[in-house]
Amino acid sequence: MMSRRLLQDKGTETLRQSCLSALYLPTDKFYTVLQLHNLSINYQVENLHRDRLQGIVGSGASVQNSTVHHLTKTLLLNYDKGIRPVKNWTQPTTIYIDFILHAVLDVDGQNQKLTTSVWYRQLWMDDYLVWDPTHFDQINEISLPVEAIWIPDIIIQEFIDIGNSPHLPYVYVNASGVVKNYKPMQVVSACNLQVYAFPFDQQNCSFTFGSWMHTVNDVNLQFWRSLAEVENDTRAFLGDSEWELLSVPSTYQRLQSEGDDYAQIQFNVVIRRRPLLHVVSLLLPSMFLMLVDVTSYFLPPNSSGRITFKSSTLLGYTVFRINLHNELAITALHTPLIGVFFAVCMALLVISLAESIFIVQLVNMNEDVEPICFTANSCPSSHSTSESPCPSLETRGRNGDDRLSGSDPKAGVQQEEEHLETESRDLQRRRLPLEQLQEEISSIKLCLHNLDMDSNPKNEWLAFCYRLDRFLFLLYLVVLAVYTLTMTSLWLIWSYP
């Protein structure tokens, strides 16, 4: 009111001075001065109202800020964060814990470490952080620094390394004294990883929460949610990774140490590996190489290309194993089944190559035998068999004997000489017909061929080598089938215990 009155008095004085000066002005200029005066008064009134409105709002915000500041000062005035916040020291402080698995970041089978992202929540009652909201402008909840109040010493017992967890410096406290501490954590914990069935393995890692110093008489633990909700809650889990979250069963237990009981809550994270990537990159190429080795048995045993083909397959498998060595899960105690699978596959390839070398060596052993020379003496004599395979030679021998057996020796010799001279003269005068000569040559060739087929062991040895190679091939297939069934059964048993 005083400011409005002062403004009116000031406007009246200004108007009076304007009127006095207007007496000496023309009429049109007088109205112009009057309009400018009215605009000046309106502008001053608007500025006054704006200043008063800003003052009212600023005073309200300052009052609210001062209330929160006053409440914080009041709560922390005589607060001692080193003392458990209970008025009756015989009553334990109950900590309500909640555990939500967000992601599986890394599974290190060689070092037995599991890296996970966890959403951790804990809640407890602080008897010294209680106020009446009606005395503090209906403020029901405020945030307080973590360093200023008592915080329970709840830790994860499997914790082995400091992760990249964000630091949240505040907690929420309501008027009833309930303190809520929400924080995401990256946990690097120890876990008994069983990678024997890799890549069809399933892991069960535990996260045990408990107080490191306080017994159950001072600090007790309870579940924030029900056990069924904790076990089946997989909504926050990132399911696009290599691992699949199956369940999170939890238990409450008490650990006895040196005559005291310590409360513990254990969350068991059950995860299963998605094997598709490892099957495509590890198992299928190995199976294809084994199939290629099996098809190499269809090459002839005496072919040098079979050994070259099997050697190339073995070399390719060795290079394949070296390139994919880092993708295998390694442990210091047990060899994974996939490692046994690769070792046996390589052993089978080596055995297959050795068997082919052995068969080729057997085939080439027959080529070192000296061939049999067949002469006219190879034909059986007339007194050994009744039918000679060389009838023309037998006829000639028999005719000669008949000529020598008719007379006394001297006369026979003379007659033979005369006969030979006569025959030589006849042979000089004429030649044997070409057809008779071809018949004689064909008869001799047939004789030699029959003797070769009856007495040459080369064909029998080659047939024996082919039969042995076929038997070893069938034996190789049986061993490979039994090995495949055994590995499949072991993987199924260990994948679904």
Describe the structure using short key phrases.
497 residues; alpha+beta; rod-shaped
Write the SSE topology.
Layout: H1 2-22, H2 27-76, E1 93-108, E2 113-125, E3 141-145, E4 154-156, E5 159-162, E6 170-174, E7 178-190, E8 202-211, E9 219-223, H3 227-232, E10 243-247, E11 250-257, E12 260-273, H4 276-295, H5 304-323, H6 337-365, H7 391-404, H8 409-429, H9 434-455, H10 458-495
Helix pairs in contact: 1-2, 4-5, 4-6, 5-6, 6-10
**Percentage beta strand:** 15-25%
Total beta strand runs: 12
Helix count from the secondary structure assignment: 10
Q: Roughly how many Å apart are the termini?
A: 88 Å
Based on CA atoms alone, the radius of gyration comes out at 55 Å
Let me know the largest β-sheet: 7 strands, mixed
Task: Give the uncertain stretches in residue-range form.
Answer: 1-63, 369-407
Average pLDDT, to the nearest integer? 77
Percent range for helical residues? 40-55%
Q: What structural category characterises the helix and strand content?
A: alpha+beta
Strand-and-helix sequence, N→C?
HHEEEEEEEEEHEEEHHHHHHH
Q: Shape, please?
A: rod-shaped
